[in-house]
Structures
1.
Amino acid sequence: MNAIVSQIGDLAEAGERMIERLRRKAFLPESRKGLNVRFGIAEAAQLLGCSTNRIRMAEEDGRLPPAPAAENGRRLGYSVPELLNMRQVLGASPARAPLDVPAIIAVQNFKGGVGKSTVTTHLAHYFAVQGYRVLVVDCDSQATTTTLFGFNPHFNITREETLYSYLSIDPTQTDLSYAVKPTPWPNVDLIPSNLELFDVEYELAAAGSDGQSVLAARFRKLKQGLIALAGEYDIVLLDPPPALGTISLAVMQAANALLVPLAATTPDFCSTVQFLSMMDQVLQQLAGAGIEVDYSFVRLICSKFDGNDPSHSMVRAIMEQSFGPALLPVPILESAEISHAAMRMMTVYELDKPIGTSKTHKRCRANLDEAMGQIEQLVRQGWGRVTPADEAVLYASA
Ligand SMILES: Nc1ncnc2c1ncn2[C@@H]1O[C@H](COP(=O)(O)OP(=O)(O)OP(=O)(O)O)[C@@H](O)[C@H]1O
Ligand SMILES: [Mg+2]
């Protein structure tokens, strides 16, 4: 290999060492990521849709453990496990009814960098805070989502822990339970990924003329595997790679809802239109082959919106005109809080204190809650039950 070309390997190695250093720094003292977020009583009550009094009474009569002790004169607030327990005890769990179908949402777009992994991880943690049981499936060999959950895909994850063992041409697993990992969130599990998941794509190319039947078999497999797992969850989130390949196609078919993120820029808009048109063709071909895809909703979400940038407003207007009600009305705002949290391999929902100013943090959190809440509403409509907002009214009057 020529000396200049061999530099590429050196660059990769230097980069890998830096990623591991950053990860260790982010997750000290252990290399495992913790979860330190806490919720004040007012916030907890709001999340549960009840009064603070109801929580205090339950703490007094012993149904709930005593409120967490104060530290330096300030109340510590409730941890995520405490909040979940509170939901159980006070009957405020949003979990679906047994006969409601779990939402299996593909967060998909063939355009790279549109915010798929950012939306997937924030959506997972939003749903977790709301009390749902969530499974996140990292289907992308770039493994951004796996990283955001605190794993180093290169060092902590082997190929056998990814979807590979199940989707490979020579599968060593017959169901997906082997791949499910707990995360620092008690109600969020993860199927991780790493670079070697890409072997699934290579194998198909190598299968030659058998490729079509291998492909069809994999489609069915991922769907079956996920349906079998989904019984344990309310929401399953799929983060596929930004390209049309075997895994992307299998994800398309395995999902029962589609969320397409895109930034308010012309290249994202144009690529997303191409994605939709390609998807339409693929879905028709699949239907022709007897593979039916059934989505309970298809929505686009603007994933990085800067209201101060006139070009963003212009492109958003174009998106509104083109997509009408399929474009979710509340965009995710572009925020330094999101990119700074990503540097720490976290979502904004995992920050126990603001990274930027308190105002920036609050604004970002409020926007994320509102944007993610739109998706929660869609999921709950599919379950044919009252929305959480209605429940809040019910609890308040009870
Ligand atoms: N709302 C936002 N505000 C600020 N930064 C954002 C926002 N959304 C995404 N980003 C940043 O944009 C970059 C790309 O986002 P992300 O990795 O989620 O995209 P992706 O579609 O998953 O990319 P890929 O196609 O490579 O999988 C990341 O650095 C992320 O932190
Ligand atoms: Mg990604």
2.
Amino acid sequence: MWDPSTYLRYGDERSRPFHDLVARVPAERPRAVVDLGCGPGTLTATLAERWPASRIAGLDSSAEMIDRAGALAAPVSFSVGDVRDWRPEPDVDVVVCNAVLQWVPGHQELLTRWAGALPAGAWLAFQVPGNFAAPSHRALREVAGRDRWRDTLAPLLREAPVDEPVDYAALLVGAGCAVDAWETTYVHLLPAAGADHPVLAWMEGTALRPVRAALDAAGWADFRAELGVRLAEAYPVRQGQVYFPFRRIFVVARTGARAEENL
Ligand SMILES: C[S@@+](CC[C@H](N)C(=O)[O-])C[C@H]1O[C@@H](n2cnc3c(N)ncnc32)[C@H](O)[C@@H]1O
């Protein structure tokens, strides 16, 4: 289950890649814009500001997220649904999918399907974290690999849930798109103010959700305590804060464009 409040804990840091992604979509008057895996909807609402004449929709599989999104006073239609079942209406000119596809095994097949189903000249923009080899995720896999937890947690934690930028670019060029793919490492400065290590608090909003759901209360308390020790070693507090590098992968594809038009 997604908890919108925990997810929004580092809202500024989490929203920046969304804005950096959408900044590379030069659509002027898209007829319809869809935010797939829209979460609590705060970022979807900014799409309505950017394209006020467009029909804007947000879709997410979490009822909790859509409840939160529906309470926003934004001209956006939000609904519960799985991105794997989504099919574009014929007037969808922009699809945004920010920080979602890492949760969807086999999403490469979805990307080619969407690229084929969108009208020519539509924009498909997505971002995924590219930090699965970072100390935070190595620590997570290491603690999860201990005897006590291995059987329960090993199936939940994939080593490489996303591809490299080059692979996404090749996939979408192969699907007939012009492609702009890049990566950025943000250095988040997280204040070390609370009782928990800030990277632990960050991960609770995302990567740790399946772990928490799989363990009982005592197991979860022990797991997060052990992980917290690892994270404190990997990300020491300096000047009252923690420096947390976070790599992200971005792709903006335009459908129906020739390869020599790559963006
Ligand atoms: C990290 S949040 C990102 C939310 C939002 N896009 C943002 O940038 O703030 C991931 C979201 O993806 C949604 N999600 C994960 N798998 C999904 C699926 N198969 N179909 C629809 N939504 C999904 C989750 O419910 C969650 O709200």
